Amino acid sequence: MNGHPKDTDTDAAEDADVTEVAGLLLAAGGGRRLGGRPKALLEHRGRPLVEHAVEVLRAAGCTRVHVVLGAAADTVRARASLPGCVLVDNPEWEQGMGSSLRAGLASLRGTGAGAALVSLVDQPGIGAAATARVRDAYRSPSTLAAAAYDGLRGHPVLFGSAHWAGIEATAVGDRGARDYLRAHADALTLIECGEVAEAYDIDTAEDLIHLE
How far is CA 187 from the centre of its chain? Predict the structure, then answer.
């Protein structure tokens, strides 16, 4: 189903729960262009950005949320309130977003989830309305969908479990799943979200004006 060997203990769970869309939040970045301030701990509306991002995934309908941590992972665990989340450590976070995507998808093996809805911690302008639109595009483990802003692909992205093995094999550096999505463009459904979200990133000191 997801391209990975399964043991008999997980077969029943996977067969029963393929309708579940799990939230996968990539929150490992070290904020190099922000002077080394981990993005997960940037404050937004009085709390760490990672808490806000988890709430968005939950409000969009994801009851299971896995959060990939990297830079200052122990500090994030200590300072952020993330009840019910599965926290995934990515010791290779400095290699780029691709390593976090691989770690996150690997953590979902055996859970029975039919898809992963992937969002980035540094995009607070993308709220539950846009995230729910992409989640609702799920039809089967072969679904591949992404938010679009004025026709340009962005996040969140929904990866049906049938695609996970291929994504893990090609996700390197900061390119994430870009190469895989380009190669499977015919299967990708774009969901226009430009009127309900702003797809800016918090990458530099100038971008901090977007935080409240």
Answer: 20
Residues 6+ apart with CB under 8 A from 140: 18, 114, 160, 162
**pLDDT by residue (tens digit) across 26-65?**
999 887 777 668 999 999 888 999 999 999 999 999 999 9
- Name the stretches of the chain with pLDDT < 50: 1-16
pLDDT score, position 205: 82
Largest CA distance in the chain: 52
3-state SS record for 149-182: ECCEEEEEEEEEHHHHHHHHHHCCHHHCCHHHHH
Q: Calculate the dihedral angle through the C-alpha atoms of 133, 138, 139, 144, rounding to the nearest 10 degrees.
A: 110
